Amino acid sequence: MGRKRTNDTERARQVVAQEAARIIVDHGVRDYRVAKEKAADRLGMNSRGSLPRNAEIEAAVAEHLQIFGGEGHEDLLRLMRTAALSAMVMLADFSPRLVGPVLAGTADENSAVNLHVFADSPEMIATEVGNMGIRFRPYERRLKSRRGQIEMYAGFEFSHRNETIQATVFPVDGIRQAPISPIDGKPMKRVDTNAVQELLEHV
Fold first, then answer.
1. Which of 2, 41, 55, 165 has the fewest CB atoms within 10 Å around its CB?
2. For residue 72, what are the CA distances in angstroms to 42, 89, 136, 201?
3. pTM summary value
């Protein structure tokens, strides 16, 4: 009986993860917690015990895009990574790193290109982008540090090559310690321009 209950629970988590992935891709919901709660509600599964972890949802998003996205998704990913590389070259003085869905391959048409940049002050990034004649919108992002503390970081959103770029600003020494990923609880994966170039060559 215990094994059947375990299998039923795992199946329920899988079904919720698949529905959450569909909500994320089809409706542009970016918050995994919101997506899985909506999915559970739609499926009549309101027990928190059966809700999938964020890592399970990300895997379901990748599977959904692979099954339903096909070549169209590959083309989109290539365009987004090309825009990312171009923006990183543009911000080369600030040691840009690509993070998030565009790096992981789980980006969709509602995703932004997420960059981490490193400077003595956020104003340096604003000045650099502004001097290029690019209009931008400031934002703040809450991220968890390795010490488990929530810290606020300034960022700037702008359009480049028809893609939305979000450049979040860290202190110069912040390049050594990535914030914690809300997906798997590990330090976020960051890659430099050379790695993005390699990704483009192997797509």
1. 2
2. 28, 26, 29, 17
3. 0.80
